[in-house]
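#structure-requests
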Amino acid sequence: MASAPSWPSAVPLPAGVEGAALLEELRRLAWGASAILRAYARGETPPHGFPPALTVEEGGEGPVSAADLAVNRWLLDGFAAAFPQAPWSLLSEETAKEWLAAGQPIASEWLWLLDPLDGTRDFLQGTGEYAVHLALVRGRRPVLGLILLPEPEELWIGLLADREGDGGARDAAWCERPDGSSHPPRLSARRQAADLVLVASRSHRDQRLDQVVEALGIGSSRAMGSVGGKVATILRGETDVYLSLSGKTAPKDWDMAAPEAVLSAAGGAFSHADGRPLLYNAGDGLQAGCLIASHGVAHSELCERAASAMDRIDPHFRV
């Protein structure tokens, strides 16, 4: 394995923030979060003075554990200490009710979207399929994303270059290990629908999603917790497609921003079924519709077929 890439010059950052320093702090925060979560998962005393008891409370849309709250505190305190003057705001899943109460976009050009524990149910059930998401959004689109997978000890990083005025700008994506070694994504080259592998949620699916999958003619599927965990299987080349179809609830900005950034930087694709890009910080924090992530091969074809299927299955649904 090679050493991790450096910060590409074409990836934009707020004034006063230097890429190498940001990457180094993100690594520290990510692996610190990993140590906290792995300790809680094993019934051990977590580091950094967090309480040992893994209490669980049922919130409005799912459980909240001491592990969620500890990692949330770790990340927010870490950003505040390392970048006290940075011109950005931080929105976490655990602070969203406070920040989004007015239903208005957060008035900041630069916004961090943090999910301290994506896949809380899987974490509590001991499947090991949970993640931490960190994404930096400029305006409505991400420029940076991290997916931390504590159990396999993987840190996926994606950086999206600003292509305005730079025809040679390059995105960058890679996976790091705790020892600092890294390797690039390994997206599959499978193209025919019958050869594709779908990665799907274990708990968030309904009859409409099964009908869309059938219409796409995808050959096989596997179940996985956490959106970040699902996208990581695409990055490793194990699967090719992930679909999100909102029903009574919809995924949130912090669920999708980091996975989208990493997958897009790796050469994959993530969009609505009608081809619209995902937009963040719109005021409600929701990512509703039929969303498709793929390894990028024939992505437009998958979108067209999914949109056509949804038009038959649920004509009033906005993909």
